Amino acid sequence: MKTRKLKNDGTDTVALETTDPAGVGKLATPVVITSLDYTDYTQTNSETENLDINDTDMKNNRHCYFAPLRLRGGGDNELDNTDSNSTSGDMGAGGSQKRGPTSPGGLPAKLPRTSETSEINDLIGFLEQTVLQEKDKKKLGVMVAEKMLTKIARLRTVTQSLAHENYRLVGELKGKDDALNQSLTVFIGKLEAKNAETCGLSAELEALKTTASQDPCTAQQPSYASKAAKAIQRVPRTETAPKLTAAPQTKSRKTVNKEQMAKSRKTKATSRFLIEIPQDMTVASAKAGLWQAVRAKCSNPKAKTIVSGKSLVIIPDDANTLEVIRSMNNFIEIGPRKPRVIIYDVDGGISKDELTECLLAQNAELGITAEDMGNSVPLHKLGPRNGDAVHWVMEVPPSVLAKMENKLVYIGMTRCRCKLHSTLPQCYNCQQYGHTSARCEQKTPSCRNCAGPHDSRTCNEDGVKCVNCKGPHKASSGICKARGQATRSLLRRTDFGSPQ
Description:
By secondary structure, the protein is α+β, with helices and mostly antiparallel strands. Among the domains are: 3-83 and 96-165, no CATH class; 264-334, Alpha-Beta Plaits (2-Layer Sandwich), CATH 3.30.70; 340-420, Alpha-Beta Plaits (2-Layer Sandwich). It has helices at residues 45-50, 115-136, 142-214, 216-220, 224-233, 253-266, 283-297, 319-327, 352-362, 370-374, 398-404, 481-492; strands spanning 3-7, 15-18, 272-276, 303-308, 311-316, 332-334, 340-347, 377-382, 389-395, 408-411, 414-420. Helix 2 (115-136) packs antiparallel against helix 3 (142-214) and helix 6 (253-266) runs parallel beside helix 12 (481-492). The longest helix has 73 residues, at 142-214. It is elongated and about 140 Å long. Keywords: Metal-binding, Zinc, Zinc-finger. Residues 71-115, 238-267 are annotated as: Disordered. GO terms for molecular function: nucleic acid binding; zinc ion binding. This is CCHC-type domain-containing protein. Residues 427-442 form the CCHC-type domain.
């Protein structure tokens, strides 16, 4: 926007011609602004110098951008003329003509001269000048013009506040940056000093090494004073303090159980012999008669006898005793138990025949042969029998166990884990291990919660007691000693082939 000064003769009447204030074409008639009153807003020369006016042609008119204008004439007829002492010149309008209200605004704060602030000042000044011109032409009402000028003044204030805050933050950032640079300089100086000290010590150490290598006799032969000091400090052997040895760490129950299981697997399984005790004979008399019969054929028998109800279980410990007991007709021989593996997460639709076929066809890298699968028998499933995935338990020869234990096998479209199955079935009626309630011969049930003579499902006792080991836990607890003993006994009766 360009403004040209038309008249300035020392009075308060100034005529300005403005062309194209909105940038859309020339005005039909020049705009004449009369009676510029400087009494309410006076600027000194120093304040004028601080104003950001980019257009040199606008410096003579202080009201174009920053100073509010007070217009005489062109106001709404509804407002009364309240300034009766006005001495304005005659610009074609009588002194009794009404005028508009004073435009809002104030002196802007002094801001550093930048391209952004200059552009903002230009834009706000353009808006003010446009509003005043439109108001003079009576295209805008006085109230509308007043509101617009109020908003423009507020916009100027907010812009200046933002600019001041920006410059303040920039100053703080600059101060912190200078402080950090100063601290970094001090740190680098200290680091260089330490580096120089380290280099000096390294050079001194190298010099000492060189001196010691050049005179080995001096370095190896101790002086008389050092020998005397060692003699004084020598302590008799009997008075030396005993060496402190670290106490062995206590093994956890899990570690002990794992070691016992591994030891049980290394025990070579042999055949067992079962003999029924007659009803009219006691256990002691049956053991005495058995001892005499075996002693008659073997001078030094070695065997272990276990009483199981009304039966005796004989476990030979050497080959000679084994052959003697095997030759006797009244014994029932029980061979070693084959190991069992459990295959986890098998597809529920896989049958027994499909299980062996998949193991043979899909796992050639394990070295499983057709003969191995011929000697292997899928026994039963664990888990939900009608579920999407079940766990198969198979009885396999020792050679197949070595190929499958702790391995991954492919069965159908599933990759399954294999582990040794050493879990014993537990009877829900008598709580003993080795059989289920369907084959239990005990008529009176035993409670697995309190060890009482009643069914576990009807127990109302608060305390717990194990019927097997008498410990303060349920009979089905995993920490039961009887469970561990039964599992180890099962492993000792299992043929794992050659000792591992």
